[in-house]
Write a structure and sequence with these properties.
Residues 187-344, 484-564 form the Nitrite/sulphite reductase 4Fe-4S domain. Pfam families: NIR_SIR, NIR_SIR_ferr. Keywords: 4Fe-4S, Heme, Iron, Iron-sulfur, Metal-binding, Oxidoreductase. The protein is an alpha+beta fold and 592 residues long. Helix content is 31%, strand content 17%. The chain has 17 helices and 23 strands. Strand 19 (456-457), helix 14 (471-485) and strand 20 (494-497) form a beta-alpha-beta unit. The radius of gyration is 25 Å and the shape is globular.
Length: 592
Amino acid sequence: MSSIRKLDETPVIATSAQPQRGFTAEQKRYLADMLVKTNLHMALGGTSQAQASDVPETFWGTPVEDLCKEEKRKYEQHVLDIWDDIVRSNDTNQILEGLDQFASRHFGLFNVAPASIGYMVRMRIPACELRGDQMVTLGNVAENLAGGYAHVTTRGSFQLREVEPKNILEMLGIFYDHGLSCKGTGADSARNITCTPTAGFDPLELIDLRKYAHRLSHKILNTRDYQGIPRKFNFSFDNAGSTSCVSDTNDVGFLAVKVSDNDQGVDPGIYCRLILGGITGHHDFARDTGFICRPEDTVEIADAILNVFVHHGNRTNRKKARFKYVLDEYGFDWVCERIQDVLDQHGKGTKLIALSTQYDAPRPNINRHGHIGVHPQKETGLNYIGAALRLGKMTPEQMRGVGRIAMKYGNNDVRLTVWQNFLIPHIKDDDVASVIDELAKLGITTKATAFEAGAVACTGRWACKLANAYTKEDGNAIIDHLNSQFELDQPINIHLTGCPNSCAQHYIGDIGLIGSAAEDGSEGYKIVVGGGVDDDQALARDLCGPVASRDITTRCATIVGNYLKSRTENESFIAFANRHDLDQLKTILLAG
């Protein structure tokens, strides 16, 4: 891919009353960058690492001396060039550490010591779909090479844990042989590409976008510049059907829309609306850019967006390295202009199409728990069946069993959800009862309560060194306690995150719990309430805390009980929260 700067990015020559002597520092950085990227420094007698003596070395336009330590490592050795380190880790049975470990995360290998022994391995499952036979393979790997379990993640993928270094090469070989990968799932990667879990069979969808999610994933994994980008990056494809993949929490979302008759010169039909900048842990949802595009152009546009991020992302401050901060610094209009510049360089005639949302047909209401239970597909006589997992955990026996059910009754098709659950589609009417029965024999239910279906938890302290609380254990205790106290007609989503990094996206939960030390130094949580996504979009607000983990179940019960006593008719939790200011919520929900 061309890394040539655009003309409008050339530093402007300063003018003043006194004539300038020599180049400014910014101009020197620009010239050095051009010398290296065009190899002109070689023609001038330099080496592959040399620069003019009076010009600082740069990495993607940033002086090397200013790079943060992770960027300096990427400058010294590309993250894809660490295979020998992975082999060394395998052959010595020693886990990688420090910046070697940082680099290995780009291959999906995480050192989570001292919280958990061995590597955590995160899978890449584009569009959140995999075959039943691949589920069987993952179950075998979880049992034979990992810790005997796996977790569905909030990006519709799997994580395996407690993988001894000596098993890494065998595991990677098995993945390769079965069309699976864990590459590009950690550190500074464009993470798993998510897609609506009902894509292809949702009766209400506008278009099936899965093939574009797959193409984008392949494009990323086969483009060297997109490995070791300034920070992690999330893409999502939304089919505009009855279920959600929370696209508005992603750096980039492509939302299917039906454009109606208009006076803007845009032909009516199915397009994708481009939204940018979602990162709820930093208090931002993705926002409409004012542009749509043809669905078949989404991959090229995503490529252009990554190109802009690679060139302009912050490489000196990790806290400011996400795409949001490029948008904050330069503005949406400037970023979209740069995206179009890259598209123009491609020479294919691809355009971002300016169009207001007023010409988008209304989207059907999203069923917040539509991924659970039995639902008819668009094809007559076929159904998809959504199962509820307790906070995403599966045993090897369950994984193999689900894979075999998909092969026997479905179309060898399994979909994972961002809610840490899964679907099995293409089940004939006559086979629905048999599938439900076989899932039940595996200990998997298709009739979750309003608390179970929407409960999401990160790994927590038992396996993450950053966490301040045991989210999985506490989440299970909260679900059990609330189930024993209440029966709801409206779902309540509870999100537990062990630290402020928001892996479980606490700010979009009806009730969000953020791991934090309690006053006595024990594990605890800050509590936020009133979050939501899609047509219920809202960031949760601080309610109270930190509350000690030992008291968190009763505190959650108090909140739910007071909500039920104070709501109007069957008002949802988020609607209840949105019609009260924060002081009112504290008075109402914490009473008693």
